[in-house]
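DM from R.C. (forwarded with permission)

"hey, sorry to bug you on a friday — could you get me a structure for this? deadline for the figure draft is monday and I only need the backbone to look sensible"
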Amino acid sequence: MPESGFLFGDQPMAADFAAATPFVNAEIVGVTPDPTNWPRLTGWLARMETTALGPLNDLARILVKTRIHEQRGRLAELGYTPPAAITPPTPPLAGR
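My reply, with the result:
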């Protein structure tokens, strides 16, 4: 892990987002890296929280504690407008 910035420079890239996501899942179940033993990792995770991933992580932390049948209402309380229904993408036309 770099001492500053992100995995491959000053801006986060797909690799940063892919690598950071499992740590949120681990945190939700009570597993967090010790900053004393892993200062670069915890510093990088803190920097990732300042990116667009931060608000999504906050939302995940809330929704994981919300019963499934209450999640749409909770999203609305938080200012999100969930879709009325999830529509699968249109399949490609044959021959294209």
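R.C.: lifesaver. The mean pLDDT is 90.
me: no worries. Residues 37 and 43 are 12 Å apart (CA to CA).
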